[in-house]
Amino acid sequence: MSLSRRQFIQTSASIGTGAFIAGCIPGAASITHRPQFDMIIKGGRVIDGTGAAETLADVGIRDGRIIAFGTINNSDAARIVDAKGMHVVPGFIDIHTHTDSSILRLPTADSKLRQGVTTEVGGADGDSRAPRKSFADGDEQLYNDFDGFFTHLQKKGSAQNVASMVGLGTVREMIVGEDDRPATPDEMEAMKREVRKAIEQGCCGVSTGLEYTPGSFASSEELWQLTNAAPEPYRLYASHLRNEDNRVLEAIEEAIRIGRNAGARLQISHLKSSYKINWYKNEITLKMLDDAIAEGIEVHADRYPYVAYQTGLANLFPLWSRDGGTEQFMIRLKNRSIVERIRPETLKKINGLGSWDSVMITSTKLDDHQSYIGKTIQQITAQRNVDPFEFSVDLMLKENGSVGMVGFGMDEEGTELVLKWKNTIIASDGGAYSPASKSNPHPRTYGTFPRAIAHYQKDRKICSLPEMIRKMTSMPAQKIGLKDRGVIAQGKAADIVIFDYATIKDTATFLNPHQFPTGIPFVIVNGECAVDNNVITGKLAGKILKSSAFAV
Q1: Which helix (H) or strand (E) holds 45?
Q2: Is residue 347 domain-resident?
Q3: Taking burial as the number of CB atoms within 10 A of a residue's CB, which of 71, 137, 171, 387 is the most buried?
Q4: What's the CA dihedral at 344, 349, 353, 356 to 10 degrees?
Q5: Do residue 400 and residue 431 come from a single domain?
Q6: Cβ distance 228 to 221 under 8 Å?
């Protein structure tokens, strides 16, 4: 589409008037002429994010916004980026992330930025940065609510835009604690107040992590009442289900029931059916979600494009053994009679995965255990000639319960089926890392979005390229209610990714995850080049996206 003469004159006139006024100010003769555009992206194959076919077009940017889209013959720009032969798309919106736990220490969010993510939605899986009784950095008390968190983050700066959900597990921990018991009526009212406060302070919805303590101790009724406490425009319920393997169908049914009772928009987190015995359930879960949509419930899912999940090693141990938090969990692991009760339940999970060779260690705190990172428990214990279950118990005790793992529990056919579903949003479920990190994160933290394009769209052809881009841009924007992002159009925020379809590819692996993708030379956030010719610039142009940024 071409920029009409009238649109061009209106745009030029508004900018030209400012220049004229500046010229009338005494001493203004020394003011340097400001170009009409801060940047023009020339000749790119634009996919606007709506699902529409690509078009050859120029994009003109000024003051962090797209002010012209079409054919721009004017070359009065501070910078012109030649995008000939490359695709120009909206910045990717990662709707399910854990970057909010790492962006304070890594404002450039290297691994996420280099794959084209311009907006992060944190507070996933029931775990958010607030509300807390207090959050400290050393002796400095930093914040205890979202006002404090957002203010602190704004002072630190971010290369990406950041939004957040409020985690119902975090709310429960603050009000009820870590015990497996129902909330009292007074505690329910207190939790509702915290949910409303979080939304008022800028959150875009609520999330749950129903396989994690203490969120797992919440009943369905507690969850729908807390979700319903959010004002209707922000009543988004994003749920890590209570179970993703043997009881995944019951867990899907519960999520739909909570969405129905709360009058909420439902988002199933990292939709999957784990363990080979359950892979057939992928088709059934999608049918259940389609039926809920037909009933009138707004339903989406998010999913990362990999066949392995990442979690804590503690999740291999039964929920009852984790009741009361880490301290009580460690006490139980020191009791041999309790450990023998735990053994069969843990081994049942391992049998579902196939073997201990499906469990890879990704993080430990102690230096003595760093050599385990990147190896499976089967590999480690075979070398040491010890029992894998006993090794796991011993490792948990020495690490005070803090061990990261990857579980190879999904299949390619099921992964393609979920990614292809009409309402699946591409999301990383990952944090931000730099190559200097000593950890061994899931490769999704570096490769989610390029992998979805290169492997699942280009190679596997599960959908068209415009549809895949829509799953990364306008679909997540609409889900959380973002008004001015996710689409390339005049007046929208200038969050833009430029990639080469011929060379875009994820290179991160499970054994060597700290590898940037190829084929994404430019990432623009609010009109600033955050990645310029494959180099992170260090510009912190990201914004905190609070309630005022969402549609109401």
Answers
A1: strand 39-46
A2: yes
A3: 171
A4: -50
A5: no
A6: no
Burial class (CB in 10 A: 0-12, 13-18, 19+), 72: buried
Q: Residue 107 sits in which domain range?
A: 92-308+409-549
- Distance, CA of 362 to CA of 372 (rounded, Å): 8
Query: Cα separation of 306 and 317, whole Å?
Result: 24
Asked whether residue 343 falls in the same domain as residue 471, the answer is no
CATH of the domain at 472: 3.20.20.140
**Nearest-5° angle of CA 547, CA 550, CA 552?**
95
Whether 393 and 424 share a structural domain = no
- From CA 375, how far away is CA 355, in angstroms rounded? 14
Neighbours of 6 (CB within 10 A): 8
Is 266 among the domain residues?
Answer: yes
Are 536 and 107 contacting, i.e. CB atoms less than 8 angstroms apart?
Answer: no
Number of structural domains found in the chain: 2
Asked if residues 266 and 237 have their Cβ atoms less than 8 Å apart, the reply is yes
Residue 86 is assigned to a structural domain of this protein: no
Exposed (0-12), middle (13-18) or buried (19+): which is 350, by Cβ within 10 Å? buried
Any bridge partners for residue 523, and if so which?
497, 531
- What are the backbone angles phi and psi of residue 506, rounded to the nearest 5°? -80, 140
Query: Do the Cβ atoms of 328 and 444 come closer than 8 Å?
Result: no
From first to last of its 552 residues, what are the pLDDT tens digits of the chain?
434 333 433 343 333 333 322 333 344 445 678 899 999 999 999 999 999 999 999 999 999 999 999 999 988 999 999 999 999 999 999 999 999 888 989 999 999 999 999 999 999 999 999 999 876 665 556 889 999 999 999 999 999 999 999 999 999 999 999 999 999 999 999 999 999 999 999 999 999 999 999 999 999 999 999 999 999 999 999 999 999 999 999 999 999 999 999 999 999 999 999 999 999 999 999 999 999 999 999 999 999 999 988 888 998 999 899 988 899 999 999 999 999 999 999 999 898 888 999 999 988 989 999 899 889 999 999 999 999 999 999 999 999 999 989 889 899 999 999 999 999 999 999 999 999 988 889 999 999 999 999 999 999 999 999 999 999 999 999 999 999 999 999 999 999 999 999 999 999 998 899 999 999 999 999 999 999 999 999 999 999 999 766 754
- The bridge status of strand 55-62 relative to strand 39-46 is antiparallel
